[in-house]
Amino acid sequence: MTHAPAGCSLIPSGSGVIDAEHGAILDLLSAMTAGGPVGLAELTALRREVAEHFATETAEMAVLSADRRERHEHAHRNYLAGIDALVNTAGRGHPVTSDDANRLMLWFIVHSNTADTELVEAARRADDEPPMISMDDWLDGLDAADRDALRS
Ligand SMILES: [Fe+2]
Ligand SMILES: [Fe+2]
């Protein structure tokens, strides 16, 4: 199986808030894939952290087109469903393996470095709208009657 390289696998997205949340989630996943326990407590903590993070991203998604937003939300829902399945497995007393945790880690790194980077870039571009250019300076050069007629 493909193993996520330890340490700096996340590319900074450009959003401090999102990157901080990614770092906290990666810490939880790193502990699991480095031989730590992968039990109900760890999976429940991961589930909570991931759900809060996805809510942060959902708030940013208004800048995306409807189909891109739905694709991103769909990916989030699938990931949460995967964590929920592991929570259920652990809750029934069955083992969750380090391979399961490794798959959670791989998805998280790939998603963060692709879909989330796209989201942050879209939000940044939305903030880069050109400034409004006022007509007033142009109208000031006209006769008073024309200026008053044209200024609305
Ligand atoms: Fe994310
Ligand atoms: Fe995301």
Automatic annotation (TrEMBL):
UniProt family annotation: Belongs to the hemerythrin family.
GO molecular function: metal ion binding
Record keywords, A-Z: Iron, Metal-binding
Lineage of the organism: Bacteria, Pseudomonadati, Pseudomonadota, Alphaproteobacteria, Rhodospirillales
UniProt protein name: Hemerythrin-like domain-containing protein
